[in-house]
Design a protein that fits this description.
Order of helices and strands: EHEHHHHH
Number of helices: 6
Helix content: 55-70%
Largest sheet: 2 strands, parallel
């Protein structure tokens, strides 16, 4: 990766932290990894928070289906117009689900939400003009 500058889609692997700290590589987190954790939680515990998160993530996936096959500039336009508002609503909802200091509830979903909120900049980096 010597000399690489740009955005890197990653799964939270700690070995990349030095690249991000150097500033020439910007992390874009993987929504599929987050979704999978919520799916696992919902299947195991029936978590209402996890179910809602899955539904909201599905809205983002629908935008990607629409953008698929379009030229890069058009994909960016579609994401800005359609996915960005979903991300913003998701952020507001997440914060409401897991206020700091809230007691654990819903089978660990609040803990998962806190983790996701902490990583939020790597998700919203898809929208640099935010």
């Amino acid at each position: 990766m010597t000399g690489f500058e740009g955005w890197m889609h990653a799964d939270g692997y700690a070995g990349f932290e030095d690249l991000y700290r150097a500033g020439s590589v910007h992390e874009v987190a993987c929504m599929a990894h987050v979704r999978r954790r919520f799916v696992d939680m919902h299947q195991a515990q029936g978590s209402a928070i996890a179910e809602e998160a899955i539904g909201r993530i599905a809205q983002l996936y629908a935008v990607e289906v629409e953008a698929r096959g379009s030229p890069p500039e058009r994909r960016a336009e579609i994401r800005q117009a359609k996915a960005k508002p979903v991300f913003e609503a998701l952020e507001t909802w997440l914060v409401a689900q897991a206020p700091r200091g809230a007691p654990p509830r819903d089978g660990g979903a609040v803990t998962r939400v806190h983790s996701w909120i902490g990583s939020w900049p790597t998700f919203i980096s898809n929208f640099p003009n935010r």
